[in-house]
Amino acid sequence: MSKHVVIGLSGGVDSSVAAWILKEQGYEVTALFMRNWNDTTGLLQSSCHWEDDYLFAEMAGRKIGIPVHLVDLSDQYHEKVIDYMFSEYENGRTPNPDILCNREIKFDSFVQEAEKKGADYIATGHYCRKEEAVTDGRTYYRLLAGKDKNKDQSYFLCQISQNQLARILFPVGNLTKPEVRSLAVKLGLPTASRKDSQGICFVGKVHLPTFLQQKLKARKGDIVLIPSDLDFKPNIGYGQTENDLTLLSMPYHYSRESGKVIGTHDGAHFFTIGQRKGIKTGGFREPLFVIATDVKENIVYVGEGKMHPGLYRKGLFVKSREIHWIRPDLEMRTGESREYMVRIRYRQPLQPATLFRKTEGIYIIFKTPQRGITPGQFAAWYDGEELLGSGVIDR
Given 48, 128, 158, 201, which residue is catalytic? Predict the structure, then answer.
């Protein structure tokens, strides 16, 4: 008897091709389409896009010859993802809803729905791979980068667990995006030419301030320009001693007196480090970028030019309670340090860094200063192609 796989069918080309591959491999395949959002507030399009996605998912299912069921997870999504987003922005942090969506919805709430359909395995259209490793007689599952380095989505799965990985299949992980597109065209799938989704997971591309104003009120505040010749400390080299770690991981601190007021904004909680759009203050030789926000004083600090030193830092810190190991057998012990490759955002090239495990958490010190280290985002560390763990950036 063939194994039963339930796949999340999004109405896009990746999950459609993944479903076809599974059927070709002899699995019994059922598709679930997740309806997770039905509010158009702030959307940069006129219609509720989930309905179009569902239509394409149904058409793809008919073409492949598998049943497609609609499941409404909007309550769970709002509680576990959107409410968390609002809370983080309100506190001056910048969350990553795609990672939360994978941890809380696609590989939690969705799995529960799939189990109701009798699923042996769960499948997605993510560009990543899975392998088994045996340590001391126990099997562990390795999360590996996808074959297509330009499309690798392992970072978005940096919070999943061994129990979740054990039942996940990634049918397109060994393919490149052009190969997936070509296969979809050859098969005549209705999703073959659909554009990749953008914006917040399951919500779409939004005007973020408008979206956030559902919960967060606009408040006029000052935009303060910080000069590039300010004394930006710390400035210490790679491979730090224990006493340097706290200093290296601290963000730069500014006050109104550090620079000059050049304009106003509608709320510091609508801005994030590295942001260029929305500052709406002209007359400068180079573009302005957000280098810090203060939600208590409602100040947005900016610097002129993409090389402004306020945009770059050598280190960051992840609190102990926010550390997550996909490979618990490789977890660092207190007092230990290791060199790994790290990224702090999707598509960022991996960066060499040293991780220092202390009682209070993990300090990550990069070989070269990193642009836009942002509290609330996730740092993920890799050993070669394998994603070992991650954590929410505290500072």
Answer: 201
